[in-house]
Design goal:
Helices cover about 25% and strands about 20% of the residues. With about 350 residues, it is α+β, with helices and mostly antiparallel strands. The strands form 6 sheets. Strands 1-2-3-7-4 form a 5-stranded antiparallel β-sheet, covered by helices on one side. The chain has a 5-stranded antiparallel β-sheet with strand order 9-8-10-16-11. Strands 5-6 form a two-stranded antiparallel sheet. Helix 3 crosses helix 7.
Amino acid sequence: MPGNSFGHAFRFTTWGESHGPEIGCVIDGVPPRIALAEPDIQHWLDRRRPGQSRFTSQRREPDQVRITSGVFEGMTTGTPLALIIANQDQRGRDYDDIKDKFRPAHADYTYWRKYGIRDYRGGGRASARETAMRVAAGAVARKVLGEAVAIQGALIQIGAHGVGRDRWDWDQVARNPFWCPDAESVPVWERALDDVRKRGLSLGAVVEVVARGVPAGLGEPVYDKLDGDLAKAMMTINAVKGVEIGAGFAAAAMTGEDGADEMRAGEGGVPRFLSNHAGGVLGGISSGQDIVVRFVVKPTSSILVPRRTIDIGGRDTEIVTKGRHDPCVGIRAVPVGEAMMACTLADHLLRHRAQAGD
């Protein structure tokens, strides 16, 4: 199975399954002499862990990371960095009743069709369990980027309920279980998720990730555009079905006058932009403005409502997915989106240094 690696100069490869003994990743391209210890990574993993509220999967995983290669005396050595997390709360028996059936909207059928075999326990390699290692890699990427670059994500919509942009407060994100920047939306989301959870259903969501302090000049024209790689990064996250940069699809309703991010003279030769419809990327290259990415996460496919499907023999049947699942998987996608932003930016920063020397 190819396709388990992401990036070029900063490149990570993940491995492991939902109900296997361990998951892990190997990161290549980490520069030497960067201070790094397990707590630096654990901080970000703890933000993603399941079971921290009634609105996420109740699978209890401590997600305790171990660095097994690439660090000596608290500093990166420039050699491959290896990270491992043990799976400790697997319940493979939850899937015994459906091992011969394909869950609608899951990867069950396509994996079986492609490989002729599949790990039916929690989706195996297709499980969002894999994203823990993305968050671990993202923690290392943040160290590569340095403190000048700040990356923060927020959940801006659950189901049909969006946040009020006029009430946006980044300080609110850490004060509720939804990463919500609008305090008034929190009780609305609570009622909506309590309702669908009781009915055995789920809801989709929209996540916004913003990177500040990104220098101008990152990205390659044509096929390695920064926004193209960011779109790919977000689309590789489980259950993501759409990505937009800056104004995104709303740009279709603008005129060229409305959509132009006008510039004025700024201090130190750095222009001052009057808007940011481009989301911080022009011609595939960062402009120095905030980079803004949004992505939509579909409703969790594992639900308790019977759905029509087929089995491995091609026979019609019905399926009910038991086990522990997120009523809105988009909630835990916020730190994953942050991590993929960090990995993409770190990759392009190192590529830029190699070519331009700054």
